[in-house]
């Protein structure tokens, strides 16, 4: 996969899966953008390190948390976008309906 969302430095938005934050460039990006020269693929070693340090990863495509390494590896091998963090959105609270 040669898009931004497949990069290990891509941090997805928690609500809108088509945008995210690039930790390398420090900017908001569209996940379907073509990969740049700073692209770093998610590798099995990196995924193992994330699972060891955080204990979970999030599958953007399935919209679920994964706590099992083998399941995470299966998702990665099938081309799913995985992340262990979410993009911070300062205005997300503005989109939540209020209770009247």
Describe this structure in words.
With 100 residues, the protein is of the alpha+beta class. The chain is built from 2 helices and 6 strands. The chain is globular, with a radius of gyration of 14 Å. It starts with 9 loop residues before the first strand and ends in a 17-residue tail after the last strand. The mean pLDDT is 85.
Estimate the mean pLDDT confidence.
85
The fraction of residues in strands falls at 15-25%
Report on the biggest sheet: 3 strands, antiparallel
Q: How are the strands of the biggest sheet laid out side by side? A: 1-2-3
- How many extended strands? 6
Assign a percent range to the helix content: 10-25%
N-to-C series of helices and strands: EEEHEEHE
Rounded to the nearest angstrom, the radius of gyration is 14 Å
- Unreliable stretches: none
Please work out how many helical segments DSSP would assign: 2
Q: Given the C-alpha coordinates, what overall shape results? A: globular
User: Structural class per helix/strand content?
Assistant: alpha+beta
Secondary-structure blueprint of this entry?
Blueprint: E1 10-12, E2 19-22, E3 27-30, H1 44-54, E4 57-59, E5 64-66, H2 69-77, E6 82-83
Antiparallel strand pairs: 1-2, 2-3, 4-5, 4-6
Helix pairs in contact: 1-2
Tag the structure with descriptive keywords:
single chain, 100 residues, alpha+beta, 3-stranded antiparallel sheet, 2 helices, 6 strands, 20% helix
Summarize the structure.
This protein is an alpha+beta fold and 100 residues long. It is 20% helix and 19% strand. The chain has helices spanning 44-54, 69-77, and strands at residues 10-12, 19-22, 27-30, 57-59, 64-66, 82-83.
